[in-house]
């Protein structure tokens, strides 16, 4: 590369160099402007297709659509990890509605409609196809942990128990057996394929303090929505009552 001559008494080479660069910059600018003008003219005079805009523009818009729909679906999916990345000592946080221990006499009550409740055992739930997920569990308090869970997809559960009419409601409510902890989640998040009725952690039955026999795992939401120890599930078009929303936290609590 040529370095400007800054030898004492010789300012002229620098002025020359500046002039040269100015000429080069303007030339490049005008060449680009001309090419841009020609391309624009060609594009503008393209016959319009049935889609209402020039085919080249339509192509660009279609590509744009594709990118955004991909981003959108990714946005609604929590990143998943390998099982090896899951922590062994899973933090226990929140014990509202978790007094005492539960055993096999536990039943899941699914209120299909007022006066019409489906009563299920843990074995009924385990008989459905099993899905596992490893994801970064995030609590609003500011901690997060990569954890590994297993259970049945809520969407599979809804399908197997013929709950299609209930799928048309806006919200799913869940309550602990003692009714002390309760959450509401929007149906699209509940039907998202990573949402599980979970009965395993790290490949083993769910420990008592993690919500034995059944808890919710809903990776697109903060920890507050992952109700441990499900007693009742119900469906509603109004927002179900929500423990932490009542304390002023965001109802949606999405990630
Ligand atoms: N029954 C019940 N479920 C609960 C809570 C609770 O207090 N009671 N706390 C919630 C909160 S704030 C978090 S962060 C997660 C923590 O789950 P973990 O104990 O498995 O880490 O559970 C959620 N589910
Ligand atoms: Mo939390």
Tell me what you see in this structure:
By secondary structure, this protein is an alpha+beta fold. It is built from 7 helices and 10 strands. Strands 2-1-10-5-6 form a 5-stranded mixed β-sheet. Strands 3, 4, 7, 8 and 9 form a 5-stranded antiparallel β-sheet that branches. Strand 7 and strand 8 form a beta hairpin. The longest helix is centred in the first third of the chain and has 33 residues. Molybdenum atom binds next to loops. The site of ligand MTE has 18 residues, from loops.
Helix-strand makeup class: alpha+beta
Proper CATH architecture of the domain at 78-236: Alpha-Beta Complex
Unreliable spans: none
The CATH class of the domain at 78-236, by name, is Alpha Beta
Mean pLDDT: 88
CATH topology of the domain at 78-236: Sulfite Oxidase, Chain A, domain 2
Radius of gyration: 30 Å
**Biggest beta-sheet profile:** 5 strands, mixed
Helix-residue proportion: 25-40%
Number of strands: 10
| Physical arrangement of strands within the biggest beta sheet | 2-1-10-5-6
N-to-C series of helices and strands: HHEEHEEHHEEHEEEEH
Continuous helix count: 7
Tell me, briefly, the overall form. elongated
Report strand %: 15-25%
Enumerate the distinct ligands.
the ligand Nc1nc2c(c(=O)[nH]1)N[C@H]1C(S)=C(S)[C@@H](COP(=O)(O)O)O[C@H]1N2, molybdenum atom
CATH superfamily of the domain at 78-236: Oxidoreductase, molybdopterin-binding domain
Compact description:
With 255 residues, this protein is α+β, with helices and mostly antiparallel strands. Helix content is 31%, strand content 22%.
